[in-house]
Design goal:
It contains four helices and eight strands, in the order αββββββαβαβα. The chain is of the alpha/beta class and 125 residues long. β5 and β6 (65-67) form a beta hairpin.
Length: 125
C-alpha cells in the first residue's frame, strides 16, 4: 500500500524506528528484489529502508479479511515495545486484536479507516 510505505519511509528518515505488521498473502512466492527475507516466529521478516516489516502467517483469507494465528501472540509479546501504534483500515482483525493489547499495555494508538466510508460520505464537507 502506497500510503503506508510513504509514511513509514518518512518516519524512518526522520530518525524513528518503524515496524509495519501485515498479513502474509504469499510472500515466499514473490521476488523481493534482493531484499533479505527471513523466517521468524510470526511468519516472515523483511528489512527495507531501515523499516522492519513483519508478515504474519495467514491460514485463510476472505476478500480483505485474513486469519492470522500468530496475531494474538505478536500482540501479547510485541505491542509493549512500541511508543505508538497506527492502524490502517478496518478490513480485518488486526486493529481490534492489537488495540486490545495496546490498551492493556498503555500504548496509545490511532485508527485511520482508509476508504471505509460510503462514497457519498467521502464527498460531504
Amino acid at each position: 500500500m502506497f500510503k503506508v510505505r510513504a509514511l513509514a519511509r518518512s518516519l524512518s528518515r526522520s530518525g524513528h524506528e518503524v515496524t509495519v505488521v501485515t498479513a502474509d498473502l504469499g510472500l515466499e512466492n514473490n521476488d523481493f528484489f534482493g531484499m533479505s527475507v527471513e523466517r521468524c516466529e510470526w511468519g516472515w521478516k523483511v528489512e527495507e529502508d531501515r523499516i522492519n516489516i513483519v508478515y504474519l502467517s495467514t491460514i485463510a483469507r476472505y476478500r480483505a479479511m485474513t486469519i492470522n494465528p500468530a496475531l494474538r501472540a505478536y500482540g501479547r509479546d510485541c505491542v509493549g515495545r512500541f511508543d505508538l501504534v497506527h492502524f490502517y483500515g478496518l478490513y480485518d482483525l488486526f486493529g481490534p486484536t492489537l488495540s486490545y493489547f495496546c490498551r492493556r499495555r498503555g500504548v496509545p494508538y490511532l485508527v485511520e479507516p482508509l476508504g471505509m466510508y460510503r462514497p457519498i460520505d467521502r464527498v460531504l464537507w
